[in-house]
Design brief:
Blueprint lengths: L13 H15 L8 H14 L5 H8 L4 H14 L11 H16 L4 E7 L5 H16 L6 E8 L2 H9 L1 E3 L8 H7 E3 L7 E4 L1 H4 L2 E5 L13 E6 L8 H12 L2 E9 L12 E5 L2 E4 L1
Parallel strand pairs: 1-2, 1-7, 2-6, 7-8
Antiparallel strand pairs: 3-5, 4-5, 8-10, 9-10
The structure holds S-adenosylmethionine (SAM).
S-adenosylmethionine binds next to loops.
């Protein structure tokens, strides 16, 4: 006979939560104050369910076992505790600034290939928006910029898999103009599950890689003209925010641009950055 009912493991105790929260804070950077205990418990419940475990002691034993299975579980735990909310053309003023200020400036300097980085790219909507913005600029300003490339990184393997697929529910692009949808998206024929996929010309310009901002050194990559690191730093404490921005700046050309999320600030950080717009900074 099959059992019917909700799966509910034993509640996460304070000491179990502190073990988890200090691990996440140290290794992922995300602040985990006590108010997040219920959120962590509910997000990890599906992991316990998949593992057929009914208590967090067993779960922690596995995750911190220093075995290949444990390390795999840590990656899944990180997927579960990160917040991946995003959408196409989010905080559109930044994309307008890129189009109206940054790209004309680079074209004037005769930069033929533009290098961009979406750092904390989640499921791909931000780097694909950048790719659309680049193609729109090149279409409207022929010959000014010839090529571009976008590096897109995140710590979560789950969102990166989704990003590589580049398939999204139709509802996510409803607010885009008819022209943009027609030019850059393919429509599924499945009427029950309407979705879209970015066209190859948009996808092939974006390279996805897994990167943890807490790593001491970021991978060797070309110097970027602009870095978008938006709605990520809010989850970190001030010291971590500053250290992440410093590491990002090593990959930004002098005069390059850093875009942060609308509620993020560099106030009091003494960084070689000049504010040029709302949460838009230029490297000195
Ligand atoms: C809220 S999303 C922001 C997505 C996009 N930048 C935007 O503004 O729409 C934050 C992303 O940061 C990622 N993240 C959190 N901690 C990270 C870390 N230590 N290293 C790299 N990425 C991290 C999460 O996995 C998540 O996908």
């Amino acid at each position: 006979m099959c059992e019917i009912g909700f799966f509910a493991p034993e509640a996460l105790t304070d000491s179990q939560f502190h073990k988890l929260s200090s691990f996440i804070h140290t290794n992922v950077g995300i602040k985990m104050p006590d108010e997040k205990r219920l959120m962590v418990q509910s997000r990890l419940t599906s992991r316990l369910k998949s593992l057929k475990m009914d208590n967090f002691d067993d779960y922690l034993k596995l995750a911190f076992s220093n075995t290949p299975e444990g390390n795999e579980e840590i990656a899944l735990m990180i997927n579960a505790v990160t917040t991946n909310l995003t959408n196409f053309f989010r905080e559109n003023a930044h994309f307008e600034y890129l189009t109206n200020v940054v790209l004309p400036e680079l074209a004037k300097k005769n930069e033929k290939k533009i290098e961009l980085w979406s750092a904390g790219c989640s499921s791909g909507q931000e780097p694909y928006t950048l790719s659309i913005v680049m193609q729109e600029f090149m279409r409207k300003n022929p010959g000014k910029i010839e090529d571009y490339s976008i590096l897109a990184t995140d710590i979560s393997s789950k969102v990166l898999d989704k990003a590589v697929d580049a398939v999204y529910p139709m509802s996510e692009v409803e607010s885009l103009s008819y022209d943009l949808k027609k030019r850059y998206f393919l429509k599924s024929k499945d009427l029950k599950n309407p979705c879209v996929r970015l066209k190859p010309q948009i996808r092939e310009k974006v390279v996805f890689e897994r990167l943890n901002f807490m790593d001491s050194v970021y991978p060797k990559t070309t110097q970027k003209n602009a870095i978008f690191c938006r709605n990520v730093l809010i989850y970190f404490d001030k010291a971590t925010q500053k250290s992440v921005i410093r590491k990002l700046l090593q990959h930004l050309v002098p005069g390059g641009y850093l875009f942060l999320g609308h509620s993020e600030t560099i106030f009091g950080m003494e960084l070689p950055l000049k504010t040029v717009g709302p949460t838009i900074f230029k490297k000195e």
